[in-house]
Amino acid sequence: VYRGRGRAGPTQRGFDPYALVYGYGWWYAVGFCHLRGEVRSFRLDRIVSVTVSEEAYTVPADFDPYAVLSFEQGAQTAVRVRLRFLPFGVDVAHHSRSYWRSFEEQPDGSILVTYESPDLIWASSVALSYGPLVVVEEPAELAELIRQQARAILGNYERG
Length: 160
Hints:
Structural class: alpha+beta
Order of helices and strands: EEEHEHEEHEH
Number of strands: 7
Shape: globular
Helix content: 25-40%
Mean pLDDT: 88
Number of helices: 4
Strand content: 25-35%
């Protein structure tokens, strides 16, 4: 059972999982979707429930999960985010290392990381989840959105 983005409710489908792939900041199951009759990818965090079937299937010899993911994501724009973990937050950056597309330790003890996000709102959620441990290096639009959100958060607490 899968809850797709922007869908009214979850859909039930048969699915032959061929591979698990990390890309664009998410984990995906890639394989044959019986509902659509084609190879598709499904974000793991959107899978509502799974029932294991006893039916056997064969993964095609020429199957390339990254090609499927790249093709599907090609129509979607991704936001490239660069965060600086300040020296007192580097343990957190190390703990989440599999999430980062790049990971660069700096002479001042900070760590620069990059990752891709589906949009600015999601990118701001990720950055804000690290609180004062990070500074957004780029994009500038994300840094401005964080400033606006931080003001709104502060306003919620100043109202008494």
